[in-house]
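Hi R.,

Here are the chain sequences for the assembly we discussed:
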Amino acid sequence: MSDLDRAIAQLRACRLIPESQVRELCYKARELLIEEGNVVCVDAPVTICGDIHGQFHDLMELFRVGGDVPDTNYLFMGDFVDRGFYSLESFLLLLCLKVRYPDRITLIRGNHESRQITTVYGFYDECIRKYGSANVWRYCCEVFDYLALGALVLGASSELEPSGPSMNDNTQTTMPLDDAELETEILNSKGEVTGSTYRPRQRTLSDSSTDTRNISPPRDISATPGQTPLRTGAPGTGASGSGGGSYSSRTGSVLCVHGGLSPLIDTVDKIRLIDRKQEVPHEGAMCDLLWSDPDEIDGWGLSPRGAGFLFGGDIVKQFNYRNDLSLIARAHQLVMEGYKEMFDGGIVTVWSAPNYCYRCGNVASILELGEDTSNGGTVTRSNGDYGRSNGIISTDKPGVRSPGRRYRVFEAAAQDTRGMPAKKPVADYFL
Amino acid sequence: MMRNSTMDFPTAERPSSISIKGFQIITQKRPILKAEPIEHMTKKLGIAPPEMIFGDNFVTIEHEQSKWGISFNAFDALDRVDKTGTSMLKVAYSKEWQKSREKTHEGIKEVVKPFDWSYTTNYMGTVHSNGPAFEPTAESIPLELLKQPDPILFFDEVILYEDELADNGIAMLSCKIRVMPGRLLLLSRFFMRLDNVLFRLRDTRVYVDFDTSEVIREYQCKEMDYERVRQTLAATRDDIPAVMRDPNKLSDILPLLEMRSERVVLEDCRT
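And here is the predicted structure of the full complex:
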């Protein structure tokens, strides 16, 4: 067993590794991360996770529900530290896994991976408490500076393989199975299906892949009249797309970023130009990517707090269209259901810290994107204008088909596994 | 909303209560609200609610004979937050942030839906009464009686809402209640720390004497700018970051800006 494997085993048991080993680990991690671009390309299948916030036992629950590294390919969208009691154990374990299995786990930066924020929200104090000095905090902060700012998931399948029987069968298949494909599926932590949505199958997809390998625009799109997607789950997730149907025959990429978009960034390539190896600044594109939030507004807005941007559905739609994206996955905001799709499924918030701060009682989720095997595993990497350059498709219809999305919803680890007394308020003589 | 109704929250509890000398005290603690009730609340309030709303939580004190009661809940507290944005604070680096953006995005000057995002509230509870109302008084809550080590028969702490101010501090409204054989004390405290800007406390205390059926309600406003708090603490041997997270300790440091007392004596049984 190598030192690294030993460290992993130790951290999995929620026991810290010696300071000298942390230094070495952080050094190796930095060497790895420096080679990554600002936007890491990740091939599907992949499991996308949101904020962890030092909730170590819930991270273990996440791995139990989503599968272990390296069996499952993971993408964590930042905010590993602060708030929870085990930021060190959580972050160091993720970092060990990154160094051990660099191609099976991707870590991108959240706004809490910063010197300034960690001094206020717990990670700094935890380092002092557990290691007796700020050294480990300093090593970790140096790693933070090298974390990628985003990731691009390529080759995700538009259709999900059904996971099995539904818990209570209300999935009415009014459409012949041949004409409907599974678009989203919600699973509980036992792997039971608790909800799903379908949409009309893309006729051209399978046709084209057998007809010809060389699909060149423009295509005749007039054959498919606008159809309303079939919903069989409860409505409201926006999971069924824009309602008009989409005509392109492939799934666009999925951009993963901690916060959201920036008015300074209109293409994914512009993210690639940022000089990221620094503390998260208070201004500029890098700050926005880690801090901004989607909101039900038109265009861009300023947060009432006097700093930070809000962006509306039209911004998401334009950005996705322009960059051949079918979805933006982000974290950063607590959502009680564990995930929240907005703007006709153009953006989703994934939240992976159940019972946040040990008192919110919320559930968490992870998002699984499957691999598109219809093209013999070939991943389209074009930045191109495929499927929309014929001028017929209006801009309010996405040029690409959104990926099939499987949300695994999970609850906080049982109280007795976290070694903390059950929370009962202690009576005190307050005045 | 997607259906996942089979999920039961582990922390869901039934209300706790105690009946004593004609008074009933009830507290309820539930998880934060889900998307649908939040949407509903957003519409009713007209502002974006805080990140964590414990909308099902409450503390209620009821006098059984007179049907008088006072309760504390998140919605009524949030309804008293300034919704116009006239008392809007700005985060510490706001100037720097906005200056750096003046040239690049001139189009984006509009603040979306301005309101007091610190969720400061002067909420003093929701009173249910057909009888006498609170009247101003010079009398204050008898602290000496409350300092006696009487047994605490019932104690609870209930959070109503909390917001991280987008990682610029904390805003939190919570209620504590302790019931002794002869009296009770409730403290509803709004605590806000806006990093590098301001500390703020808004306390409402409700004192009930079970034997005289007298209720005293006291409201206090305390506030001090961040730097002055830091300087005050620097002169002590305290762990500064820890104190800055502890409203109880801060309460001793922050100067009192405003205080009001009211009193009501509940009617005895006359049925």
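The helical segments of chain B are 35-45, 74-78, 94-99, 143-147, 226-234, 240-244, 247-253. Chain B touches chain A through 64 residues (CB under 8 Å).

Let me know if anything looks off.

Best,
T.
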